Amino acid sequence: MGPSSPNIKSFFKGQEIFKEGQESSVAYMIKKGAVNIYKVLNNEKIILARLGEGEIFGEMGVISKGTRSANAEAADYCDLIILTDQIIFKLLEQCPKTVQYMIRLFVKRLARTGEMISAKGHRSNFTSICRILDLCYQNHLNLPREQAKKERNHDMGLEYNKLCKTIRGIILVSQGEIDAVINKLKSLRILEISDIRTGRAFPDRFVQIVDPLNFLEVSNNLFKELQKTAYTSTSELQVVDIYEVAEMLNSDPKILYKKIANEDFPETMFLFDRCKVSEWAAHKEPEYFSKVKKKKKGLDELEDIEDIIFVDNGTLKEVFNRLGYHKLGVLISIAQDDARKKILMNLARKIAQIVQDEVRGSVDEAEAEDVVFELFEMVREIKGGSK
């Protein structure tokens, strides 16, 4: 262990912080570096999570007054702030009594669920996923009204991405298997799935249990029936690279890269080799991951509204004078972030307000495509290029 102060402990890369089964007397907040949370199953080290600066770990054992449910080691050199049980319970006491009770109850149930799953050797990820889903949903339903109001779309049910993260943090299961279980329950109307469009390419997804009181009994009976029909769970996904995906879909890797960048590809399909990513990232500068350097495009490559950032201001002003208010309004309504800023920057303030008022609500997709095409055709005409 490296140099430390009364409230901070330092650990070198690979150094053990605590082991599964040890008594839990303190939790930790990562001030600097990173920490791996892992389990050892069948002599294989399985990393459950890699935590970074500002994240807290080890608190579950302290609140439940139990033992460590997993191992922790320094993934890099790290400084950890020690959170004693007195500090944790003092923070907990600042919450309303109902919230205190719910946190303690949730932690105990979560720990018990983890023990039950471990004791059975993960013989069934189907039932394990259902147990965790039930626990999370009961906690969701019992959330105090004031706290529930602060949660975005609380009445829609559990946020799917958060649910999946919780499940993967407790049991060793792939995203593909979680999706398979949820889709099976949905197809039998045991669950209801709702999608909300938020302006992103793929929607936010929420899960509701149709009959919360009988869910575990129904899911257990379902699993027995599925076993009779030779249902088998899949814990590993068949991995393919982007070139094979392009071939499967009769597409082109360059098009797929664009769809990924535009969030047109579900994020649940992205799986990375942890060790290879860490090895690759180690050779990059820290600022490499804080911003994206846009590659400049030629005139013939301009096609999406986001490509407007590659057009010089003088040309844009000339094009905008020819387009008219309505078409400018269409462009503003579909442009995002840098592209939108680029458009507004080349319009007088009063004109910008007028064109934004021209288009209210949804824009016809076909019309938007035509306007974007016309925009870049004018740009190419002015600049002397041709597509």
Automatic annotation (TrEMBL):
Annotated ranges, domain Cyclic nucleotide-binding: 9-109
Protein name (record): FliG C-terminal domain-containing protein
The species this protein was found in: Desulfovibrio gilichinskyi
